[in-house]
């Protein structure tokens, strides 16, 4: 019997695990458990329950859409049904307790996006258990039709796509999205919607032992998050890219334990001959089912610019790491080298797995100089849009900085810091816009906490701007009385001062000077970046503001340091 070969080359080793490797694997599983990366059994069950409910609701939604389309067509209505697929960390089986569920509604040809937004939200509330649906937020204007909500406390991203080649969906439970011809007639964004699921399904089909892959991926995800190199939007690999890297290592060591896969992962990727792409299978060219281009550096010069290409396996293959620039690649390679060293020691029992997951030192000892990109707005809604946009552009600024001759490395931190400030006048507002933390609202839940996920460019609350409380001027009033003029202090009157809430998001970029660099003038890069951001149509100069600040490590805000971390302090002045 010949064994199936997974991947584009034969395996490196088909050795079976040793007793020692198995023991390290048990230790790894235990460490990941104690680090809280696993969902509780109750949570797992509750997520399955939510999926069952969504399936029933989606069937009813498609039935109603059919009835709306052709009220007299009883056969169409009778056979109408939809399907629910998942993608993201839930589909890959590597989700933690707080993770969202990324879910896709697939419908037959006749169901429209308008119907998705008109029928589905009300139906969802109607059919779900009373009170189960909260924070319901349809986002009709986004690239992909998405409805966000919480279902029994689980956050759901629900996207939608109808299949243009199918009058009705097949009834078999086993039916999936693997068939390339399902993409026929879809727009680029619709192809992307289907491919979330198609890619994760393929990854799982292309690894020899899914359970081994999942545990190893959990380890790599935790490591990448702790080392602050996880975030597609900031120029690092995201969840899908890390998953494909781990999957490739699994293909090359098909019998190995997760512990061995993790160790080999660091060595293999550290020494990977980039820009040779990481592939899980041969790229399918020439299908011409859609016009969405397949990644091909021979044809597209933009694809030749990808520094560490990691290519999605489902047609049409795309590069999941096109955002990775010069500095982030250098940082990733540095981290891979450290990971190789640490896991080598773990594999010989000299260190515990815990050592692989130590936190980054981006703020504590990472850099002497930082650039802070501060986006701010006068309303929460404006800030959601504005900070989301600015965040998506930070990579462009990093790219400009990397080209500066005095800069050796420009490393963006992978998360933004949201803060809320309360100001009483224009001067204070200006200070906040320029980076002051003197008016931070301390008890705000978002205060200083890094965001856990990218903000959607959507409204989250009612659209009304807050009305500033306009009250009497503070001071004394003069009361004319029969006993003559008397000055009365208004101390008893409740104080009505004008207050404004200002929302800010800070992105930090660590700067390392090039060897021999004497001075650092970044005014051109900074001004170009500001001009690019503020010339975008979403910029509203009445509400939004953008500052870029150059600070020393000793001037970093306190709230980026966790308890136990030491903030860099200015060098002691020598006593004379
Ligand atoms: P979590 O466990 O949720 O933190 P995840 O891998 O599931 O990790 P997300 O839920 O953020 O991560 O994303 C799931 C997938 O959705 C990944 C990517 O294919 C797609 N996706 C996420 N954000 C965007 C975006 N802004 N634009 C396009 N696709 C996105
Ligand atoms: Mn997710
Ligand atoms: Mn999501």
TrEMBL record:
Top-level lineage group: Eukaryota
Domain Poly(A) polymerase nucleotidyltransferase, chain residue ranges per copy: 7-207
Entry binding sites for Mg(2+) 2: 100, 102, 157
Residue stretches making up the Poly(A) polymerase central domain: 212-359
Catalyzed reaction equations: RNA(n) + ATP = RNA(n)-3'-adenine ribonucleotide + diphosphate
InterPro entries named among the record's database cross-references: NT_sf (IPR043519), NuclTrfase_I-like_C (IPR011068), PolA_pol_cen_dom (IPR007012), PolA_pol_NTPase (IPR048840), PolA_pol_RNA-bd_dom (IPR007010), PolyA_polymerase (IPR014492)
One GO term of the biological process aspect: mRNA processing
Keywords: ATP-binding, Magnesium, Manganese, Metal-binding, mRNA processing, Nucleotide-binding, Nucleus, RNA-binding, Transferase
Main localization category: nucleus
Segments for region (Disordered): 443-472
Residue stretches making up the Poly(A) polymerase RNA-binding domain: 361-569
EC number: 2.7.7.19
Biased composition (Basic and acidic residues): 443-462
Cited Pfam families: PAP_central, PAP_NTPase, PAP_RNA-bind
The protein's required cofactors: Mg(2+); Mn(2+)
Gene Ontology terms: cellular component: nucleus
Details of cofactor binding: Binds 2 magnesium ions. Also active with manganese.
Residues that coordinate or bind ATP: 100-102, 157, 221, 230, 239-240
GO molecular function: ATP binding; metal ion binding; poly(A) RNA polymerase activity; RNA binding
Location relative to the cell: Nucleus
UniProt-annotated binding residues for Mg(2+) 1: 100, 102
Summary of the function given for this chain in its UniProt record: Polymerase that creates the 3'-poly(A) tail of mRNA's.
Family that this chain belongs to: Belongs to the poly(A) polymerase family.
Identification of the protein by name: Poly(A) polymerase
